[in-house]
Amino acid sequence: MATVYRVTHRTEYSYESTVTSSYGQLHLIPREAPGQRCSASDVWVDPLPDDYRERIDFFGNRVGYFAIHAPHEQLTVVASSRVEVDERPAGMTLFGHRPWEEVRDAAAAGDLGDPVDVAQYLLDSPLVAAGQVYRNYALRAFTPGRNVVEAVAALSSQIHAEFSYQPGSTSVSTPLATAFQQRKGVCQDFAQLGIACLRSLGLPARYVSGYLETDPPPGRPKLTGVDGSHAWLSIPAPDAGWIDIDPTNDQFVSSRYIVTAVGRDYSDVPPMNGVIYTEGGTEGLKISVDVVAES
């Protein structure tokens, strides 16, 4: 059984002075993935771009590009998609029976799925570097002989319990070491911390960007614009493929999650980035996301 979602992601920029040209890249369209199908999508850009095109990137993500050459002081991008997500098991008790050390050795030997695909998630990436401090932190959950999925779940619980979710406490430019030291951050930080811990143990891990359907307050209707982009991490488990887990909410990913893109870290899959030509800067930025279940 599948749940059909309508996802709308709206981004509005306002600038201090006239922008003569804008060039943007988007990771806003849900990708095709096991248990997930994007049946329709549309991207609307105002001002009307002189060029818009899409492609599939190295990681298999759908990426949009646009170029605007007319002068403008505001930019609005709205991505709307219809996505079907299959029911996922509530737990992973049937998978990942192998000790994590065995999975580490299999990854090093190229025996854990596609060796080229897995190898890129073992290496340091622009925002996530392995280190002894992360290895030591992970070893509290990765005790000798513990099965890999149970250990990853324990690491997720550890991060969830010991780090405070505080929007605004970090930004996309905040180094992971800073978030680790101050013990607070947002979903991006917690996902990248989990990835750093796993890679420091010799285990592959990838960054996942997407959306999570949120619940309204008890007894109140679902509000508009309260959903947002989310991030979590993914590991390859023996006989199970890639398994996703969300340290921010301390749970395995369910059918309420929608994947837009995967990469080595946030720098591979920002929802929107680009270049503008202007003497001023960005005066305002507003983002709203709605994830609505149609059935």
Characterise the protein shown here.
The chain is of the alpha+beta class. The protein folds into 2 domains: 2-86 and 270-293, Immunoglobulin-like (Sandwich), CATH 2.60.40; 100-268, Roll (C8orf32 fold), CATH 3.10.620.30. Helix content is 20%, strand content 39%. The chain is built from 6 helices and 15 strands. The chain has helices at 100-109, 115-119, 132-138, 148-162, 176-182, 187-200, and strands spanning 2-19, 21-26, 36-46, 51-56, 62-68, 72-86, 164-165, 184-185, 206-212, 229-237, 241-246, 251-252, 257-263, 272-277, 282-293. The strands form 4 sheets. It has a 5-stranded antiparallel beta sheet, with helices on one face. A 4-stranded antiparallel beta sheet has the order 3-6-1-15, with no helix packed on it. Strand 7, helix 5 and strand 8 (184-185) form a beta-alpha-beta unit. Helix 3 packs across helix 6 (187-200) and helix 4 crosses helix 6. The model has no long low-confidence stretch (mean pLDDT 91).
